[in-house]
Specification:
The protein has about 500 residues and is an alpha+beta fold. It is built from ten helices and 26 strands. The strands form five sheets. Strands 2, 4, 5, 6, 8, 9, 10, 11, 12, 13, 14 and 15 form a twelve-stranded mixed sheet that branches. A five-stranded antiparallel sheet has the order 20-19-23-25-26, with no helix packed on it. Strands 16-17-22-21 form a four-stranded antiparallel sheet, with no helix packed on it. Helix 5 packs across helix 10.
Length: about 500
């Protein structure tokens, strides 16, 4: 945005906020979903300076909140907890004026963020017509979309709304995020109470744009003020304004833009962004949004077949803070949808944008059920090694669950090394074929290193496009959950311990 336009925009926004008319903030509207109990929903807006605002909730249960004063043009009310359901009317009243929201439901509010694969809308996916035709059958799944805006400073309210809150129809859902809508629809079928979906994403954007300056500085990624990458510009304009909203959790699909920008720092910048969002939403909502609210994300899918670039596998690994799976000690209350087995060779939107968002959303719902809703015994993690043993001829992997195995000569690789230095993506790797397997084990042929070298590390699916559609070699016993990629080093001088690099 040109500097003169930016200044004009800020002036217009200031005048809009200071005009003294009683109203709700931009992202409150008819048909919206507010966060249900046990959390308390926060409502806020604008009004004449010094006026006393009383909030009324009329519906299956009624509330009258204590009056609050308009201070610096803004009023804010935190209502008592409301059980899932509706509809309600929410009215803000001053002496000579009222503002009312109609058809308001209470349920769980999920924020959907990221870049182009989250922005990818319902008209672009496989079976789009069929999916859109049934949208109206889910009237309690409501959608809202922020406009694409940037700011050099943290804004109080959204500069503009792209899609106001709506009851789903084929027309209203068509331009909405496919991953976000499908996630909400699937979660509604599980929860059977209202779901509010808030889309705030922008294609081609790095994680730094969505991170506050606090988070960026935490990872030492400060940029000059005139940097074209724009640290924090989307946090300022598209996330910071939402902090007062009480939310249940967030889902995220991003990372492609960081495969060639601050790639090696993503194992810091992504977890730091999550931590910072949690702190900021908790504080912004007056403690109503959980300080560790559940955060789900999609591990990168694919881009270039037969690519030798490590950008995508590196980011996949860094998305887990170099652990290989989530939740983990660094990334608590997170969940991940593995998507490396969902390539789309013929996508008209370029191969970096696969059209199968149904499987992505379904895998996210499994994680949400387990992590956000504490459902026991729901499988949401693909197989991951719990023990790796090696000798001169074989590497024997024992997984943490029963596995479904398809033979492969190329998906596993061993690092041959004559030193004690850990192997990384740039080390020398040799393909290790699968020889045998059992219910929880896979045996690889490893007699491939020079006589002077040993098997120093093992990695799995470490390439941009590791397999064809739903055809990776290792899945859960059900065949639904693919094994995530990993890179694990061997330390023979430490009692045969294998550790992630």
């Amino acid at each position: 945005m040109a500097p003169t336009l930016f200044v004009l925009f800020i002036l217009l926004l200031f005048n809009h906020e200071a005009d003294g008319i009683l109203r709700f903030a931009s992202y409150y509207g008819d048909h919206m979903v507010l966060q249900k109990s046990p959390e308390r929903a926060v409502l806020w807006g604008y009004g004449p300076e010094g006026a006393q605002v009383t909030l009324f909730l009329i519906g299956p249960t009624n509330q009258k909140a204590s009056p609050v004063s308009v201070t610096k043009g803004i009023w804010r009310v935190t209502i008592d907890p409301v059980e899932a359901g509706g509809p309600y009317n929410v009215t803000a009243a001053i002496e000579n004026s009222t503002a009312t929201l109609t058809d308001v439901l209470f349920g769980d509010v999920w924020l959907c963020g990221g870049q182009s694969n989250m922005y990818f809308n319902m008209t672009q996916i496989f079976n789009s017509s069929e999916e859109l035709a049934i949208a109206a059958k889910y009237p309690h799944v409501r959608t809202f979309m922020a406009s694409l805006r940037q700011s050099k400073t943290e804004l109080t309210d959204l500069p503009e709304v792209e899609l106001p809150w709506a009851v789903p129809t084929e027309e209203s859902v068509a331009p909405f995020s496919a991953v976000c809508w499908l996630f909400g629809r699937y979660m509604y079928k599980y929860l059977n109470y209202p779901i509010g979906l808030v889309e705030s994403c922008w294609g081609g954007t790095p994680v730094e744009a969505w991170s506050s300056l606090r988070a960026v500085k935490h990872c030492g990624l400060e940029e000059p003020e005139d940097s074209p990458r724009g640290n924090s510009v989307l946090w300022n304009a598209m996330i910071h304004p939402l902090l007062n909203l009480t939310i249940k959790g967030a889902i995220w699909y991003q990372g492609e833009a960081n495969t060639n920008y601050h790639r090696d720092a993503y194992n810091c910048s992504f977890p730091a962004m999550i931590d910072d969002w949690r702190m900021a939403f908790h504080q912004g909502s007056g403690g109503q949004t959980a300080p560790d609210f559940p955060f789900g994300f999609v591990q990168l899918s694919t881009n270039v077949n037969v690519s030798t670039d490590d950008g995508f596998p590196d980011i996949r690994w860094h998305q887990t803070a170099d652990i290989g799976y989530v939740p983990n000690a660094r990334m608590k209350r997170t969940f991940m949808a593995v998507a490396l087995d969902l390539p789309d060779k013929t996508s008209p939107y370029l191969t970096i944008h696969p059209r199968d968002k149904q499987d992505v959303a379904y895998r996210l719902t499994l994680g949400a059920r387990a992590v956000a809703y504490y459902e026991k015994h729901v499988p949401f993690l693909g197989p991951f090694p719990k023990q790796i043993l090696s000798d001169a001829t074989y590497v024997n992997i024992t997984y943490d669950q029963t596995v479904s195995v398809t033979p492969s000569k190329v998906i596993f690789e061993i690092c041959c090394s004559g030193t004690q230095d850990p192997c990384g993506p740039k080390s020398k790797w040799v393909q290790a074929p699968i020889m045998h397997w059992g219910p929880t084990t896979v045996q690889l042929y490893a007699k491939l290193c020079p006589v002077t070298d040993v098997v120093a590390a093992l990695r799995y699916a470490w390439r941009d496009w590791p397999c064809d559609f739903k055809a990776c070699p290792i899945y859960s016993a059900s065949g639904i959950l693919p094994a995530p990629p990993f890179l694990i080093n061997h330390y023979p001088d430490r009692e045969n311990i294998w550790i992630s690099y």
